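Issue 218. Parser rejects a valid record. Input:
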Amino acid sequence: MLDEAQVVHALATRNIVPDASQREAIAALVKLLASNGRRSLSGAAPARQGVYCHGLPGRGKSLVVDTVFELASCQKRRLHFHEFLREMNRRLVSEPRGGDRLGSVSKQWLNGVELLCFDEFHVHDIADAFLMGRFLDTAITLGTRIVLTSNYAPDALLSDPEFHERFMPTIEQIKRCFTVIRFGGARDYRFDGEEALLPHFFAPLDAPTRDALLQIFVRYEGDETLEPVTLSAAGRPLAARAAGAALMWADFDGLCVASRSHLDYLDLAEQWQGLILDNLHTEWLAKSHTLQRLIWLVDIFYDRKRALFIASDHPIEAALSGLEGAHDLSRTLSRLAEMQSRGYRSTLDGAAGVLAQPVTQP
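Output the parser choked on:
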């Protein structure tokens, strides 16, 4: 049976000594796994059927949850919220019409899952709120053990005053059925990493940057596929500068200025291990829809541990700081910091035959 000492030891191998809130979460997660998640003979559900970890970005929520998840010896599943929504909507399309299609699909989805972990749980619109409310109700009824990480406290979910009251029953259910833990540490772990040997973000958009991007692509793919190509993202065409077996190179306007959704980025992250996001003019980020698409892209590529290289006219992190008009921007800045550190292990290096030559910093 998993105990707290095993989790602390696993974190120590990554040079992490858990702080007070992380230890509180470890204890709650171990206790959750010790329960069987099933109802008693009287039909009552377990007193706590889940753990809800929330707090500012980079405070170790996903780190702790992922560590416990890896050690858990049960039928388990962990996924990002965007991936979950895609799966549920695909199932709903093919589900016969009936009185409770959402409840039926939720039961199918949960079949065989004893432990479910959602990373970056959020609810920003009423359609997702309705779907998530019914899903959680079904999961709790079935006795599925659930772990959620979020930047939002339960009461801050679906903050839009027009719809917030309609989500209150689900919020109250979370507070009643989950152990809610706030990660309040002052340290953002993602900003502590040593800079990677291979630069990931480049500015300005000049000849040295162009040469550096070319070196990166050739480093992973050689020069045989170095030519423009039209690809498919969620069934829609996407013009790319080049695409190899593991790395794709495309312009920002085609990926984030054009009308696209998280489904496009999920598809791309499934096809390639890394992306060169080129020709980003930071003035475009003033448009809320464009900014939100960039946030989705970063979220999905980070969650899948994909590599991301960005070339922009001005330093991307400075350009993003202080912007408004999109959800979860602080999390994006935190993740971008980690994605250019040595501690971020992307799947690109494991998937591609990497040449020995270093990339020259422009």
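Fixed in the parser; the record now loads. Residues 190-351 form a domain with the Rossmann fold fold (CATH 3.40.50).
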